[in-house]
Design goal:
alpha/beta; Rossmann fold; 17 helices; 12 strands; about 45% helix; globular
Length: about 400
């Protein structure tokens, strides 16, 4: 999503500077820009020639990455060969630090200006790796307000441009029309379920989420936004497998069948029109905050990954929403605390009107404010992707 947004912003910025509305050394028309690299469906739709598909790099956890190393190494070499053939003016790496710092190192060797957009969260763990950004990146464009100081204090040329999701508009579709479109029951309160965007994440997070819905029963309707990196068939199969493993209740198709779990293609309307959510740690938690949805954050990795990773954490909280706010806005259920009963307990605190729900809504409003582009930002627009595009085009040598 970030990459597609940035491509569109770069084209807008190129048009503006060719018209003399933005400062730049040499104008370049938008139709002269071309993009290639790593991406998925949204990047392709935005006009990027995807040499590597993001699905092939979607691996979670320390132990899981090891088994995929040969494949990832092959994709990395393929990308570098393509860069040597096409000779880009600027390289932009987005997130995925384990893969992208190596790409950045190769771009540095070739004297290609390199920008890191959505810089790695090295402030959370493995802070020593900041030297990789300092050595190989010309400009780090960060999307969380506290990141600029963290990176600048360590010698990185960093700039906070705002979070790409900070200006998400509220969905225009009404709850009634949304219910008709996806055959939802408008008489029930809806709970959005987002167990992750990767196969391994879903398999780790799904069983406890499903068990919580079984305990809550049919008084709610549960919505499943299908992540672009997953398929509906995969989710259906995983839901069915997980339901059959729940031992506390007798699962009958007429009571706990797939009809209770309608799939929807876009997460934002589901989040906006729901009463609450159960959401795996990641970008979806920021989307929920932007849609003003109270939710419970959950996450689980393999036991070995957790044991290896936890001692290296340098932050007191897991949820991005809580890190941005500097306090616990939403509950975090991680690893051993991530149980169906704990989910149920936390949801029961925020589903009804009352002090707990009001406090969470106030905290989410604080987070939305923090993620806006900084006050006094220059340029013709305050949108984070457009601000990033202005900075990137100024680095282009021609």
């Amino acid at each position: 999503m970030y990459g597609a947004q940035l491509i569109e912003a770069l084209r807008r910025a190129a048009e503006l500077r060719s018209a003399g509305q933005l400062e730049a050394a040499v104008p370049k028309r938008a139709d002269q820009l071309s993009f290639f690299g790593v991406g998925g469906e949204r990047m392709r739709a935005a006009g990027c020639d995807t040499v590597v598909d993001t699905k092939d790099l979607a691996v979670v956890g320390i132990t899981e990455i090891v088994s995929h190393l040969p494949k990832i190494l092959g994709l990395y070499k393929q990308l570098i060969r393509e860069a040597d053939r096409r000779k880009p003016d600027v390289a932009i790496v987005i997130d995925s630090p384990a893969f992208n710092w190596r790409v950045a190192r190769q771009m540095k060797k070739r004297s290609i200006p390199t920008v890191y957009y959505v810089a790695p969260q090295f402030w959370a763990w493995r802070q020593g790796r900041v030297r990789l950004i300092r050595d190989y990146i010309d400009k780090a464009l960060v999307i969380f307000p506290f990141e600029e100081k963290f990176y600048r204090d360590r010698g990185v040329d960093a700039r906070f441009v705002g979070h790409p999701l900070a200006d998400l508009p509220q969905p225009s579709i009404s709850r009634e029309d949304y219910a008709k479109q996806f055959n939802l029951d408008p008489g029930k309160r809806w709970i959005t379920l987002m167990p992750g965007s990767r196969v391994k994440e879903v398999r780790m997070n799904l069983p406890a989420i499903l068990e919580a819905t079984v305990l809550m029963g049919n008084q709610y309707q549960y919505l499943w936004p299908v992540a672009p990196t997953l398929s509906r068939d995969f989710l259906e199969n995983e839901i069915h497998r997980s339901l059959l493993k729940i031992k506390k209740m007798i699962i009958r198709e007429d009571k706990f069948g797939f009809f209770r779990f309608p799939f929807v293609p876009d997460s934002l309307p589901a989040l906006y029109h729901s009463r609450a959510g159960i959401i795996a740690s990641g970008t979806a938690t920021v989307e929920a905050a932007m849609m003003n949805l109270p939710f419970v954050m959950v996450y689980r990795v393999s036991p070995l990954t957790y044991r290896l990773g936890k001692p290296r954490l340098k932050v007191p909280r897991f949820a991005m929403v809580n890190l941005i706010a500097g306090e616990e806005v939403i509950p975090e259920l991680v690893q051993h605390d991530f149980t169906a009963q704990n989910i149920l307990t936390k949801l029961n605190e925020i589903l009804p009107e009352g002090p707990a729900r009001n406090r969470m809504l106030q905290g989410l409003a604080k987070v939305r404010t923090c993620l806006q582009a900084p006050a006094g930002a220059t340029g013709l627009t305050q949108h984070p992707a457009d601000r990033a595009a202005e900075i990137i085009l100024k680095l282009a040598p021609r």
